[in-house]
Design brief:
By secondary structure, the protein is an alpha+beta fold. The chain has 2 domains: 20-336; 357-488, 2-Layer Sandwich (Alpha-Beta Plaits), CATH 3.30.70.270. It contains 17 helices and 7 strands. It has helices at 25-51, 60-72, 74-84, 89-111, 124-145, 153-173, 176-179, 185-207, 218-243, 255-268, 290-309, 314-344, 357-369, 386-393, 395-413, 438-447, 479-488; strands spanning 10-14, 375-383, 418-423, 426-433, 454-456, 459-463, 465-472. The strands form 2 sheets. Strands 3-4-2-7 form a 4-stranded antiparallel beta sheet, sandwiched between helices. The chain has a 3-stranded antiparallel beta sheet with strand order 1-6-5, with helices on one face. Helix 2 (60-72) packs parallel to helix 10 (255-268) and helix 5 runs parallel beside helix 8. The longest helix is centred in the middle third of the chain and has 31 residues, at 314-344. The radius of gyration is 28 Å and the shape is elongated.
């Protein structure tokens, strides 16, 4: 869409590779039909596990046909998500590829490995299954650990801690007989690989909730439900195999299909949560939460169980020890953040993370007082009609735009000088000039920060900026005077947003 009142100053459009209009009901209707179609196959296979007698034999129609279709159809939803939401294209394509590889493993096992006597360890299907887990873990990692905006490292560490706090008791209570399997190297690897893959998925999903105060939205809740089905199926399967009570072709075989169906639903309900909303709060206001404290009690309990009660489940002990180490790291990082806030909260802009006008003027004053660095230049960048941008895309995404502008400036200007948010959509850049010829070059660099569109979540936003510049020799002007001169020199001419 284009601002009708100031069409020349900014533009907003969905960040898709084709010409796109807002999402219509037809898209929703298509998703409903697709998910209904997938649900029919999933439901048919689940019902067949109760109604179709297999007597431990492989049923080509149900176990080879309907099962394979039911587990691969959700890939369509994942591909459609990747097509329509470029910001999440890579993770959903990785997850979809993992599902297809897993389906290939099922076919190899059903039509080849299970007919071998004895079944080799590792079997060909085991190698394929492990490859699918690598793709799934990689996809979930990219999906959950990116596109959440600028988040304090301590918050990410806290999320991992909470994820480990759930994984450690899971390893202790659910996977104990599996993770304590002994035997040949490959037998241990095969027995431990599957539950470890599920634990990784669990940790990644739980850790992704930390920036959102552990409140999952619909897609994350669906993915957590999917992993819960995977975990349930693996718990029952591996424990039955360990005890020699496993019976194939039961409802247990449907748990993976149900999990994949939920993952496909998560792709349809793609996470469009804006990272900008996170930056509407002060990044240091929350100096620590209940999660690390609660996790510490869990880790201590698991460690005590290992040392006093069982002495067997080493995997749970490893997870607990890693969690305790990360708790210590989180305490140090959180204390560092709080100390920074106490020392100078006014020196960091809460939206962009850049210098504030006060710290910018302080740096200018230091340079002007030092006669060794040559002349000092100030370039002021103003985004034209930013109020219209706010109205068009909302305040949360507009905050994200300001943050991305700052990140682009830090990347392109590098160590040439300092870049600050002075107020609103007003930015300032200052640098010392070894030679007078560099003044115009730096002004052009600042102006060209706005000549390319900005990719924000599901939007591509183009804005127009104008600049004003002023220079002064050390001791010839105060920091405030130099900034006022640059403000006065703001140019009325600006490059259009689509000009390279």
């Amino acid at each position: 869409m284009i601002n009708d009142n100031a069409a020349s100053t900014f533009s907003v459009q969905p960040s898709m590779s084709r010409k796109v209009t807002p999402i219509h009901f037809a898209l929703l209707r298509r998703d409903i039909w697709l998910q209904s179609f997938i649900s029919l196959f999933v439901l048919a296979y689940v019902v067949s596990t109760f109604t179709v007698s297999r007597t431990n034999s492989f049923n080509t129609f149900w176990d080879g046909g309907v099962y394979t279709i039911a587990e691969t159809l959700p890939v369509i939803a994942m591909v459609l998500c990747a097509k329509h939401w470029p910001a999440q294209r890579v993770p959903w394509l990785l997850i979809g590829a993992g599902v297809l590889v897993h389906a290939a493993g099922d076919l190899v096992y059903s039509f080849h490995d299970q007919n071998l006597i004895p079944v080799p360890v590792p079997a060909a299907s085991d190698i394929i299954y492990f490859a699918s887990y690598v793709l799934l873990v990689a996809g979930v990692f990219v999906l959950t650990q990116s596109h959440v905006g600028r988040v304090r490292p301590a918050v990410r560490v806290e999320g991992i801690i909470f994820g480990l706090a759930l994984a450690a008791p899971a390893a202790l209570l659910w996977y104990g007989p599996v993770l304590s399997v002994t035997g040949t190297f490959w037998r241990v690897v095969i027995a431990d690989g599957y539950p470890v893959g599920n634990l990784l998925l669990l940790v990644l999903l739980i850790s992704s909730l930390a920036p959102f105060a552990y409140q999952p939205n619909v897609p994350v809740a669906l993915l957590l439900s999917a992993v819960a089905w995977f975990v349930f199926g693996d718990i029952v399967y591996f424990n039955q195999v360990s005890s020699g009570t496993y019976v194939p072709r039961t409802f247990l075989d449907a748990t993976w299909v149900i999990g994949l169906w939920l993952a496909g639903l998560a792709a349809t309900a793609v996470d469009r949560r804006r990272s900008g909303a996170l930056r509407r709060k002060r990044p240091y206001d929350r100096g620590g939460t209940w999660a690390p404290v609660a996790a510490t009690f869990v880790f201590v309990a698991v460690s005590a169980n290992y040392l006093v009660v069982s002495g067997v489940d080493s995997a749970a002990m490893v997870l607990a020890c890693l969690g305790l180490v990360l708790v210590g790291v989180d305490v140090i990082m959180t204390k560092r953040d709080l100390d920074r806030a106490a020392l100078g909260r006014e020196n960091v802009d809460i939206v962009t993370g850049l210098m504030t006008s006060e710290s910018f003027l302080q740096q200018l004053a230091r340079w002007l007082a030092d006669g060794q660095g040559g002349e000092v230049e100030v370039v002021v960048l103003d985004i034209i009609d930013f109020a219209g941008v706010n109205e068009a895309i909302g305040y949360a995404i507009a905050d994200e735009l300001l943050w991305v502008i700052g990140q682009r400036a830090l990347y392109r200007l590098g160590g040439r000088g300092v870049f600050a948010r002075l107020n609103g959509s007003h930015f300032g850049f200052a640098a010392t000039l070894p030679s007078a010829e560099q003044a115009a070059e730096l002004s052009d660099l600042v102006l060209h920060l706005t000549t390319e569109s900005f990719r924000l979540s599901d939007f591509s936003v183009g804005v127009v900026g104008r600049v004003g510049a002023a220079t002064a020799a050390p001791g010839a002007a105060s920091a405030t005077d130099l900034l006022v001169r640059a403000e006065a020199a703001l140019s009325d001419t600006a490059l259009p947003a689509d000009q390279a």
